[in-house]
Each structure stands twice: as structure tokens, then as C-alpha cells.
Amino acid sequence: MNVEDLEWQADSYGGVNLRVVDSLLERGHLELVVQAAGEREDWFCARGAARVLQAAGEFGRAWEVMRPFAESGWLPAVSVGAGILLQCGRVDEALALARPDGEGREQGEACKVYAGVLVGAGQVGAAIDALVPHLRDERLLSSLVEMTEGQGQDERVLDLVTSLADEARRMYAEGGRESLGRALDLQADVLERSGRVDEAIAVLGADVAARRSSAEIVRASYARLLARHGRIEGLRQMALGDHEYAAFRPLVTALEEAGRPEEAETLLREYITTTNCPGNYMGLLMELLVRQDRLEDAVEAVRPTFEDRWDGLLQAAVLVLAEHGRHAQALQLLEERSPEFLEEGAHWVPSNRWWLMGESGRCGEAIAEIEAAPDLEPDERDTTIAWLLAQDGRLDDAIDLLRSCSGDHATQLAELLVRRGRPLEALAVIPSVASGREAENRRREKSRRRGAWSDTGDNSGRAEESGRQEDHRGCTDDPLF
């Protein structure tokens, strides 16, 4: 098992894409996914199969699927594998698998995995001991606080976190470089869960007031702490003072949970009229109104931003309407845009339009528009039409189209083949891990060379896109991909 291959899969969503794995498992093809995990050394197949087997109580089989991955020493697989062994009652084997070897640049992360297994084995004190040498790494300090919650070790954890928080305060007083700022809000977290809420608020409030950390996360933690305990006036002071960005969302949430949504709405509307950067607060207002089932008001609240190409909330409004099944209204928002906006959004607006048409059953119209569009890249044209064909129930036509394309459409094609009941073909169209890595390296090298030519004055070629599509549609501005 090649660790570099596993890292590439995790970092690049290489191999069998998560969506394909989930689709196979949802349709009952567990044995095929298990087979693919072993034969292809595919991490996402192994993780998906193990998850289904664990849910079914088949812990022994789940371990057999995960074992070669875990024994590679790759930490994500070690963590999953040790967790499965704990479920099997094989505690000593789990601890042996996860125990750090004392070497390597990932020693802190290895200790984090080991500590998690120790907690799972009921050895919380030993877990804390494993992390103590690494607590100056804020990520591992956060892990300590997280994994010890509810484990009866709050006093010891509080002593460790407070020591580092006090050091951060001394460094601040001496003008030194801040490196332990997270210890401040983590100290408050442990105080809060120990039942010492007033002390948590007082300590972290003093740190925020003294600006002992430049990290926005500390101010945001303080605002959420106040919100959880209904300290609305304290939140209001933050929001209308120097910390409005951190405090406004928790303040709106606290007012809403207190049964005062009208007050939250009034506050937001008043602030929007006075601030120089109203966009964020318009977004909060829209979300509040949507939660109150006031969709029309929500759209009107953000309408003034629609022509702003960079900070506008048109996309957010379109998605909100689509989520509520109001595709025609979302399309209307796009059609109302000015010629100047449509020219600037020459790619974004049509893509959203075709997606909305497809979601509302107008696939044929959308395909006709795409076929008549002169400037679309062939790859975009083909993938969009294939999605629309599938949306229209024409799976065979979509599959044939993607098979005829020259681009890399393996994941989209595999998804359609799974839906068509052809799972073996679906896996066959996905390149092996080795082939996938090689192809990605070629794309990157070609992109690098194009970039070098461009730097020397040759701008005749269009740089080839080297990145992979995001794994989930929600991770991109384009709803179709």
C-alpha cells in the first residue's frame, strides 16, 4: 500500500470519487465496493465499505477491508482502523496499531490519533499524557479540549490550558509575538463546560476587551459564548462597538431564540443603512427572514445588491429560491439583470439559468439554448448537456454523449452508469490511482509550461485547466458542476 497514493487520493479526490462510492452503496453494491477497495487500493471505496459494514455490526469484515490501509501507517487509515478494532473489542491491537513510533515529521498528529484511541479505550489520563508534549501546537490543544469533553478530566485539562493562556497573556503584555491565542478561548470553553459560566465570560471578556489576541476566532468564540447563555446586552455592546463582525450573527441568533426576531430584523435594517459594508449584514437579514418563512421579504432585502458583480447576493437569493422549489422566480431574477451585468456574467448567468431550467423540467429548452450558444467551450457544452439529458431521464443518451467526448468525464459518466444499473462498467471507466496521478501530473506540467510561455510573451495559447472539479456541487459557484 503506497502512502503517497493514499495522500493523493485524499487531497485530490482521486480514484473512485466519493459520489460514485455513495451511489454504489446506496444501490446495494457493497461487495463490489469491497472488491474495488482491495483490487484498486482505493481509499474512498475502503472507507465507504467499512462505514456500511460498521453500521451493520460487521466489525470483523470492516477491519479486514481497512487492515491493509491501516497497516500502511497512513494516519487517517490508522485512525479509522483502530476505531474498528475498538468496536471489535480488540483494545490491545487498536492501541498497538495507533501507538506512535517516535519518529517523523507528523509526530504530533500521530500522538493525536493515539490519544483518540486511548480515549476510546477508556484511558483518558493516558490520552492527556500523550498530548502534553505537543500542546503548544494550537490544533493539538484544540483536540485535547474536544476529546476530553464529558470524560471527567476537566480540572486537569483546565490546568494545562490555563497555563498556556497565561503564557499568551504574558507574551502580549511584553509585546512578544502571539503564538498561543487559541488558548484564551479554549480556557473559556473548559470553564463553561465545567459549569463556571460567569467565570468563562469574565475571563474571555477581559481578553477581548484588552485585545490580547488578534485572532477573529477568539472574538467570535466570546460572542457565541454570550449567545449560548442569553447575554444579549453584552452581545449588543459588541455588535455596536468595535466587534460588530464577530458579534452580529450570534446576536441575531440569540434574539431569535429568545422569541424576539422583530428586534433582530430592526437592528439589522438600521445597521445596514449606516455601515460602509452592508453586504454581510444584508446576508444575515436574508437568512433571518428565510427562517421566518418570509421568502419574498428575504429576496427584496438583498435585491439592491444584485447588480454588484463582486459582493452581490444574487447567487444566494437564487439558491434560496431553488431550495424552496421556486425555480421560476429564481429564473426571473436572472432575466431582470441589466445588459451590463449579463455581459460581465456571461458564463455565470447562463450556467445558473440552465441549471434552474433543468431542475424545473425544462431540460429540452435548456439543451436547445446550449446548442445555439456559439462561445461555449466544448467540454462545458458536453458536460452540461449530459447533466440535462440525465435530468430529463435520458440516461442512455447522456452516457453515449460522455463516452464520445475527449475530456475527462470519468466521474460524471460513472455516476450515470451506476444509475443505469451498470456498476461494473462504472468502475471500469474510472482510471486507476496510478493512472490518475500520472494524468494529473501531465496536466500540471502542461499548465506550468503554458504559464512559462505566457511569462515570456507568448500569450497565444489558453492555459489548460489543471485542477479537478470539486467533489460536491456546493463547493463551486457553478451549480451544474
Structure notes:
The longest helix is centred in the C-terminal third of the chain and has 23 residues. Helix 12 packs antiparallel against helix 13 and helix 19 runs antiparallel to helix 20. The C terminus is likely disordered. It contains 29 helices and no strands. By secondary structure, it is mainly α. The protein is flat.
What is the chain-wise order of helices and strands?
Answer: HHHHHHHHHHHHHHHHHHHHHHHHHHHHH
Q: Any idea what the shape is?
A: flat
Distance between the termini: 32 Å
Q: Structural class, from secondary structure content? A: mainly alpha
Alpha carbon gyration radius: 27 Å
Return the average pLDDT rounded to an integer: 90
Helicity level, as a percent range?
55-70%
- Main beta-sheet annotation: none
Low-confidence stretches: 453-479
How large is the count of helical segments? 29
Number of strands: 0
Amount of beta strand: under 5%
How are the elements arranged and paired?
Elements (H helix, E strand, L loop, with lengths): L2 H10 L5 H9 L3 H11 L2 H13 L3 H12 L4 H13 L3 H8 L8 H14 L3 H8 L6 H10 L6 H20 L8 H12 L3 H13 L6 H13 L3 H8 L4 H14 L3 H14 L4 H13 L3 H8 L11 H10 L3 H9 L3 H6 L3 H12 L3 H10 L5 H14 L3 H10 L5 H10 L3 H6 L4 H23 L26
Notable traits:
481 residues, mainly alpha, 29 helices, 0% strand, disordered C terminus
In short:
The chain is an all-alpha fold and about 475 residues long.
